[in-house]
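Forum > Structural Biology > Help requests

Title: Can anyone predict the 3D structure of Histidine kinase?

Hi all, first post here. I have the sequence for Histidine kinase but no way to get a structure on my laptop. I'd be grateful if someone could post the structure tokens.
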Amino acid sequence: MNEDEATKIRKHIHNVRNPLNSIALHAELGNMLLEGHASNKELQNAFSVILQQCRQCDAELGKIRNLVVPERP
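Reply #1:
Sure, ran it for you. Structure tokens for Histidine kinase below:
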């Protein structure tokens, strides 16, 4: 692996860590909202963010996979 490829992989790993941190934060928020008897709208928002961030992680992991094993035509 050359330095350019390693740099791209490090960038994508960083881009996965950001949504993972957001997922953890919103999962904790969801727990706190449940304990505090929050509204359904507040809970729905927390879970929507988690789902969106999971999709972002999936996209970034796909980019990493394509760097390592390019898609076949």
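The chain has one domain: 3-66. The chain has a mean pLDDT of 87.
Shout if anything looks off.
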